Amino acid sequence: xxxxxxxxxxxxxxxxxxxxxxxxxxxxxxxxxxxxxxxxxxxxxxxxxxxxxxxxxxxxxxxxxxxxxxxxxxxxxxxxxxxxxxxxxxxxxxxxxxxxxxxxxxxxxxxxxxxxxxxxxxxxxxxxxxxxxxxxxxxxxxxxxxxxxxxxxxxxxxxxxxxxxxxxxxxxxxxxxxxxxxxxxxxxxxxxxxxxxxxxxxxxxxxxxxxxxxxxxxxxxxxxxxxxxxxxxxxxxxxxxxxxxxxxxxxxxxxxxxxxxxxxxxxxxxxxxxxxxxxxxxxxxxxxxxxxxxxxxxxxxxxxxx
Length: 306
What we know:
The chain is of the alpha+beta class.
């Protein structure tokens, strides 16, 4: 009983002492703020010069003030969280507005594409243009690199049994990467566009200028047989021209990254080194093209040689 009474008296004494201290600080701040500031400076300097003097009071003060700081700081943390949330909402609204504007532009382009498609079809009907056959593909996996320092080629897991024939164009994820040069029953070999022996008839979009795209055994390709006065801009797309009937027209290949008086360099859209799967374009057998190819392969008559 005595112990309980003593603890109660001690607690009351401590509360009264704290109240008096707070009252004293308040009166000092009210009547002599400069004295309080000076005292604080003296205490601060003493703690810096002789840190051991204030170590115990500082620890006790920390224990006493820490809960108060936690309580007082709670509203500020709430405000900070609210400001952060408002900032996030503002950013989300800005992103939403940007996406809405982009969606509107895409819808406009879609409508434009539909109009151009209809106009193109009308012109084709007017001129009795024979429609291009629908393209079909053979999808297969790349099983190895059969190339060397002088030959750039890939092996694929598809052959005659799958409908693969020599000369077909091979597409990567974003553009053409080569053509079929050897066909087995269940595997085939692709000659890549960057092989030094590769030659592809192409056209530079925006100029309608036909050229030959040649490999360099490097990551870039070059355009040959261009007129000297032709102006090629960097960033122009290069696609197959369809000339000769070997490849469909308009297959994407790459873009111009350098154009000067000496050379026009093209960067392929697809790096064949990273190709795991490819698509082989099944070009319908055109009898006229087949006859032209057979005629080119036929021996030259002796009368012509003379």
